[in-house]
Amino acid sequence: xxxxxxxxxxxxxxxxxxxxxxxxxxxxxxxxxxxxxxxxxxxxxxxxxxxxxxxxxxxxxxxxxxxxxxxxxxxxxxxxxxxxxxxxxxxxxxxxxxxxxxxxxxxxxxxxxxxxxxxxxxxxxxxxxxxxxxxxxxxxxxxxxxxxxxxxxxxxxxxxxxxxxxxxxxxxxxxxxxxxxxxxxxxxxxxxxxxxxxxxxxxxxxxxxxxxxxxxxxxxxxxxxxxxxxxxxxxxxxxxxxxxxxxxxxxxxxxxxxxxxxxxxxxxxxxxxxxxxxxxxxxxxxxxxxxxxxxxxxxxxxxxxxxxxxxxxxxxxxxxxxxxxxxxxxxxxxxxxxxxxxxxxxxxxxxx
Amino acid sequence: xxxxxxxxxxxxxxxxxxxxxxxxxxxxxxxxxxxxxxxxxxxxxxxxxxxxxxxxxxxxxxxxxxxxxxxxxxxxxxxxxxxxxxxxxxxxxxxxxxxxxxxxxxxxxxxxxxxxxxxxxxxxxxxxxxxxxxxxxxxxxxxxxxxxxxxxxxxxxxxxxxxxxxxxxxxxxxxxxxxxxxxxxxxxxxxxxxxxxxxxxxxx
Amino acid sequence: xxxxxxxxxxxxxxxxxxxxxxxxxxxxxxxxxxxxxxxxxxxxxxxxxxxxxxxxxxxxxxxxxxxxxxxxxxxxxxxxxxxxxxxxxxxxxxxxxxxxxxxxxxxxxxxxxxxxxxxxxxxxxxxxxxxxxxxxxxxxxxxxxxxxxxxxxxxxxxxxxxxxxxxxxxxxxxxxxxxxxxxxxxxxxxxxxxxxxxxxxxxxxxxxxxxxxxxxxxxxxxxxxxxxxxxxxxxxxxxxxxxxxxxxxxxxxxxxxxxxxxxxxxxxxxxxxxxxxxxxxxxxxxxxxxxxxxxxxxxxxxxxxxxxxxxxxxxxxxxxxxxxxxxxxxxxxxxxxxxxxxxxxxxxxxxxxxxxxxxxxxxxxxxxxxxxxxxxxxxxxxxxxxxxxxxxxxxxxxxxxxxxxxxxxxxxxxxxxxxxxxxxxxxxxxxxxxxxxxxxxxxxxxxxxxxxxxxxxxxxxxxxxxxxxxxxxxxxxxxxxxxxxxxxxxxxxxxxxxxxxxxxxxxxxxxxxxxxxxxxxxxxxxxxxxxxxxxxxxxxxxxxxxxxxxxxxxxxxxxxxxxxxxxxxxxxxxxxxxxxxxxxxxxxxxxxxxxxxxxxxxxxxxxxxxxxxxxxxxxxxxxxx
Lengths: 352, 204, 625
What we know:
Number of domains of chain C: 1
CATH class of chain C: Mainly Alpha
Strand content of chain B: under 5%
Largest sheet of chain C: 2 strands, antiparallel
Strand content of chain C: under 5%
Oligomer: heterotrimer
CATH superfamily of chain B: Cytochrome c oxidase, subunit III, four-helix bundle
Number of strands of chain C: 2
CATH topology of chain C: Cytochrome C Oxidase, Chain A
CATH topology of chain B: Four Helix Bundle (Hemerythrin (Met), subunit A)
Largest interface: A-C, 105 and 118 residues
Order of helices and strands of chain B: HHHHHHH
CATH architecture of chain C: Up-down Bundle
CATH architecture of chain B: Up-down Bundle
Strand order of the largest sheet of chain C: 1-2
Order of helices and strands of chain C: HHHHHHHHHHHHHHHHHHEEHH
Distance between the termini of chain B: 62 Å
Structural class of chain C: mainly alpha
CATH superfamily of chain C: Cytochrome c oxidase-like, subunit I domain
Structural class of chain B: mainly alpha
Largest sheet of chain B: none
Distance between the termini of chain C: 21 Å
Number of helices of chain C: 20
Helix content of chain C: 55-70%
Helix content of chain B: over 70%
CATH class of chain B: Mainly Alpha
């Protein structure tokens, strides 16, 4: 036990752990939600504040911990030396009160400035309304009158001003809606979605690509399964995408046509026909919106709020029993047969 | 020593570092926390006082009967006066007088609570209930807790009377009456705030 | 009233007089026994909360975990938080405060011994009530913070248990707080002015005032939730116009002072341990005291820093950012003054000191990460991620728990008359320090890599696998360290070296009485002439030079005119425990409010409380034979 008592060893262990931590945090590989890798001006502004503050914090940490370790080592009990009996040192105490206060005041200035600048609606922004549901995301491009779900497409190099609207009730169960928060770390910090209230945030991406995020505000069973993606396109490509959203998808034939029949008028043991909750022919704001709008479903990378890759196997499992694969999902188990599932999947694949 | 001197000497049980009696300090501390309790309830009411969706019953301030509530407020205010008289009697050693004034205080308190109950049943008939709207919830929980506090006060007043009658109040009767008096006055002051904020201040 | 006389005549309700055996523990009003009850119960809950944490870590050890389903996970993380905050850190602090406040101020007991017992029983029964939810339909699963509207929508009885159980614990805390305030203000030994009180007493006083004013706020929020869930009210129903933000304001107005309630007693302990083991007075006593008071006041002005992402607006956000930054200043004062206490000292590395050093070093980290949260635009990134989980575990585990263990090792010889083993104590410390940093250090990284809180599972390819695994391994190391402590505590009962009255050459009055102290604490009421008065009965202080031990026959600080002969101690009583049982009875009545048992249960509970209170008031505090 003598070994473990030695404060040097303690200091060594502590320092090593810390170094490791710092080192490895800098080399995070493949962390798609990496907060420290901003991909747009909004995220970068917060990141710059972080760099200053974290830098100061590290310096303070090193100085104070070193002072602690040094003191403990230097003044360990040794025969022949007694403790010095002083009660304080006013000058030192005042200094060590004023210096931290000044450092904090220094950090406060850029912080407050950023708080105000980030809260303002940026000029020329693309306007999007976002509604958080249990457990999926609804997006409305208010200018174009287009509704989509779960994957938000934006143009690069242009701010997107999102109005996060808290729905009052859950559209499926009728219960009170709950809080969520919308977060794509590489593009911006979070804002909460509060039922009955509107909050606002700006996101912007510099480069085209797919940016991942998820709900952070605990919302119940499905909280871990409420993820999102933002797909950024160059402006021209984005305009094309938005236009395509407003157009009707191709008419289905063959098995897909059978699927359309089931979608619009199927009689299922576990619930109504799909069309009572989901739109698959139109992205207008007036289309059915109890569940995600599926009009251009085939173009999505994922479904069920970013949880599953959009492929036949996953769709099949989902349609067989949604809540079994995604806890908390409020889409009912319709009691579909495998043939019905195959037909519906064929139909969904035509929703381009 | 005289009854008065004995009564006054019994204001404190033991020697204390601050010179203030322990139980009196406890009551003050407790009333301090009650300020936060009622403060939170009143704040909630202020937030919700006009939060009534269409077809969800009345807005509370539309159905208040100010003259009626003024009378019951007056009754409660008078009970503070009788409480002071009860304390004064106990300090003079006049136990019979103390019991009469304590009973008077309790009676006025009962009248107040009775008036509240009558007022509430009226509101319920007009559609304002605990569940009709956030305004209804805030109103009934605030006034309900206040009424519960008054009721607990009435029980304590009657207990004082009972203890006095079975000769269990002395020594230290005046101290105990003062303690309950503090509580009673506090509950009265809370009512003054509620009456002003909830009933009197109009919605814009 | 004839009630008390009735009980006495009947015999079976006669005034209890047992001083040994389990019945003596149920009826005790002795602050020392009550302190031990608090400590023991809190430790059991620490083990339970720890097992909940181990289950969470097992589920999150790797991606796509399948050990726990989402509902079970949500219950476990909710109960882990509730347990550690309300059933471990707070009561453990209260237990030490209970045992040592009277001893450190030279009193024989607290101001209201039966109220003290009542506080304990309400806490213990409230904890049991909360845990009974596991077998009565499911534990609360809305998080310890229980945000609305989710808190009113969750099915089964869980969140109703939440609203009632926390309410009961709040009653216990409030009763304890008023008791400590009056005890500290009114029962100090002659000569102990406020500025001669030990720092631990000051911190206990500030903590008690915080409790006094914070508990009623959450009581209102919990009542509102109860009315929403059980009686159809609409406080938090957005469909009827209810505002979920109201819950957040009420909760955090309580919640932020709550974190200072948890940390201040531990800071007080550190302020006693460091001077003792460095053999010199605390550096900057006045500054440390005033910093503690400042933290108490300023703690009321920072609550909305938990709400930076709820759309309060830039003005509110800026205001709370500033207040949050500046609360770091008094905290810094304490840390610098603790280092100043060690400076120039003669430091002995015994376990109490190791844990206090652990507190200081870990709290520096937790405090600094807290300052980074005040950078509002970046808090929008940190909020609800593991970065926040890292911060509060560093201050609550690295801080409060380490501080409480420091107190446990420091005061164990006084309480039980035996030392805890030094060797096992060091092993416990190092294992716990390493395990703690392995578990929670990676959370900083995980949060900054984008891992949110409160998720029951995470997918592969997020870059989170490695650090989650490390963290789970760390949690195992923590568990091992706790086993070492249990071994130490059990062994010392039979094999522990006996300790005298003053095992550490201490500074404060509790070391002037035998170990364990007699029921009456002090044979004669001490008279206090200095801060650290006990130290001054042993040493003459020569400024800037070493202290000199007083020659035999020096002032022993006893008042020749103090009471001699028979010491009146408050007598044991049933009524506090009896009254406490009324609350869970009422609670079950509200839980089952959709059955016929509801009103009978509620009324029975009220009657139990009323009858107990009558008995309590009518029985004298000291039973004359």
